[in-house]
Amino acid sequence: MADVGREVVASALGGPEVLRVREVEPRAPGPGEVQIRVHAAGVNPWDWKSYAPGAGARPPVRLGLEVAGVVQAVGPGVRWYSPGDEVVAWPVTGGYADVVTAPHQVLVRRPERLDVVQAAGLLAAGVAAAHAVEATGVGDDDVVLVHGAAGGVGRAAVQLAVLRGARVVATASGGWHDCLRRFGAEPVTYGPGLLDRVREVEGRVGRVSVAIDAAGSPEALDTSVTLVADRSRIATLVALDRAADLGVLALGHGAGADPGTDVRDAARSQLAALAADGSLDVLVSGTYPLEEAAAAHVRSREGHAGGKLVLLTR
Ligand SMILES: NC(=O)c1ccc[n+]([C@@H]2O[C@H](COP(=O)([O-])OP(=O)(O)OC[C@H]3O[C@@H](n4cnc5c(N)ncnc54)[C@H](OP(=O)(O)O)[C@@H]3O)[C@@H](O)[C@H]2O)c1
User: Looking at ligand 1, which residue's alpha carbon is closest to its atom 35?
Assistant: First the structure.
């Protein structure tokens, strides 16, 4: 019999208090699948949104979209990976676990430059950012306004836009400004008066031509539609319901949004390559033992975690 492992599930719809650790027998990999011994699992806002009241999920809800770990077993037909390979994977189902089984296509090798904890935070936020940068057509003559630039998605979007040669104006609280300057962005504090502060920065960097919203506040889209004339170059990853009314791009799942499946799948290996050569960094602001997933969710829900939160299995 296979070893029994732990996994975290939402036992009911609600807040972090519904999370439970249960024992499961890991599923053997089927054809084309890989079984991963999880060392670290990235925490993403989707994880706690997925079991919120009204989410429509049927408990128990398995959690965890992205992991970093070591290949433990491969199923028939898998030639690219062998036991012992260090990998990252997104999207997986039930990544908050000691062991997860997933199709080989969702894996990439862990970039050596990232340790296993950082690597667990590379893909979910990274592919969303890559989708936003691609969908809005960011190029080297653009000035890109990134809302929520202190978060996992926003920070990745800032770095990817800078890599494309764009100038970037990034909204974040003051504690993140030095970090964003190091990435090559012009930081601006969000909150009342944002439009005026961005206009002041426009005097130095040029007119904003693209906006990417990873914050979801009314202010983010209001500012974006005021500044950017071409609404097909404004994308939100959060305020999906409002996007249609405003005629801006809604990216992700739900409310008629563009899931960007092909772009995101292609981004997986591109992000790993950028992380491998040091062009893309992942910042981690907190780690928690797997059993303390609820504490990680409390912090993520507060909305100011900044760096990635990561669960550790050992
Ligand atoms: N549609 C999709 O496909 C998709 C994919 C991934 C994520 N998302 C969504 O994108 C959002 C961000 O995800 P994430 O992983 O980046 O979250 P995160 O890492 O938890 O980051 C959240 C950041 O948002 C910043 N923030 C909070 N209120 C803000 C405001 N009013 N204006 C500007 N920034 C603000 C905070 O920065 P400070 O520390 O500076 O306050 C915080 O660090 C979430 O709602 C998530 O569900 C959507």
Answer: 148
Superfamily of domain 128-250: Medium-chain alcohol dehydrogenases, catalytic domain (3.90.180.10)
Q: What is the dihedral of CA 66, 11, 18, 240, to 10 degrees?
A: 50
For 71-119, write each residue's pLDDT tens digit. 999 999 999 999 999 999 999 999 999 999 999 999 999 999 999 999 9
Q: What is the pLDDT of residues 120-177, one digit of tens each?
A: 999 999 999 999 999 999 999 999 999 999 999 999 999 999 999 999 999 999 999 9
CATH 3.90.180.10 residue ranges of the chain are: 5-122+282-312, 128-250
Architecture of domain 5-122+282-312: Alpha-Beta Complex (3.90)
Count how many Cα atoms sit within 13 Å of the Cα of residue 300 in the half-sphere of its side chain.
25
Residue 176, ligand 1, Cβ within 6 A: yes
pLDDT on residue 2: 58
Q: Is 303 in the pocket of ligand 1 (CB under 6 A)?
A: yes
Closest residue by Cα to atom 2, ligand 1, is: 252
Q: Which atom of ligand 1 is nearest to the CA of 125?
A: 6
Pocket lining: 154 vs ligand 1, CB cutoff 6 Å? yes
